[in-house]
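Still learning folds. Look over my entry:

…
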Amino acid sequence: MSNNVLYWLWLQNALGAGAELREATEYFGGAKDIYDADEYSLKFSGIFTPAQVTALSSKSLSKAEDTLSLCKLHGWQIIDFEDGAYPQRLRDIENPPAVLRMLTAIFISR
């Protein structure tokens, strides 16, 4: 999990599952950079639909924080696009997901 995991969760929540993130992250630099962008910059980029610009203009991280808390409660690890553990083959596809949820394995020896 990178230091920017909340911003990756925010971005995925704002754009929804299946959103094309590669062009946006290449243009802006990353999820935190998109979060920091003002509405004019989001519109001017030509990347986002008007509905997506509206969603991205909401800078609340509460849903992302709730998601992260829930994942920690259930022992799920969040791997975001900046994380070194993000699979390279998945990173290379045309439309990779911003975040992955991984089940933390628990081994019990007898």
